[in-house]
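Milestone 3.1: sequence recovery, worked example.
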């Protein structure tokens, strides 16, 4: 088997893995968005209220359900009124779902921008630790053969505590 065939096989395998990671990231984003939307429901509109209620409790009145809710910005708050998540669409065509910890620090950011989708995880100090998807952090470069290589449209990038690049693929 030649080096070219070996390289071609490895590239095909990597592309297949990235496709599955991308699908997983999109599914995770959908699930997080659906969970956030369900957390916003009023108690009488909660689809799981019957599972949590006691058998002797009766639901006497139901409010009419909205068929569509439209807004430029949604904010999810906890029992104490602190912001825990924010869903925003900006004027440039990007959409961001940002989730905060109990201290109010950003811990995860799911976004879709003109560069593509990305999922970013932050540590307690606010440093980016993992990026999955589209990233412009590692640009194009010239390889050892003198050929210019363009940055991939999608990648997985890991950082250490100091923000230095630990690993990226591709």
């Amino acid at each position: 088997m030649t080096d070219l065939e070996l390289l071609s096989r490895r590239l095909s395998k990597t592309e297949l893995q990235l496709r599955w990671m991308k699908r997983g990231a999109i599914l995770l984003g959908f699930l997080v968005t659906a969970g956030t939307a369900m957390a916003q429901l009023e108690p009488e509109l909660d689809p799981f209220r019957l599972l949590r209620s006691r058998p002797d409790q009766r639901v006497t009145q139901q409010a009419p359900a909205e068929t569509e809710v439209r807004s430029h910005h949604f904010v999810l708050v906890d029992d104490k009124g602190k912001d825990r998540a924010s869903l925003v669409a900006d004027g440039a065509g990007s959409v961001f779902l940002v989730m905060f910890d109990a201290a109010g620090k950003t811990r995860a950011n799911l976004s879709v921008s003109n560069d593509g989708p990305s999922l970013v995880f932050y540590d307690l100090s606010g440093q980016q630790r993992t990026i999955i998807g589209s990233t412009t952090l590692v640009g194009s470069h010239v390889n050892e053969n003198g050929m210019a290589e363009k940055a991939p449209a999608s990648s997985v990038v890991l950082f250490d505590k100091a923000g230095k690049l630990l690993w990226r693929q591709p």
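Residues 76 and 85 are 5 Å apart (CA to CA). The first strand starts at residue 73 and ends at 77.
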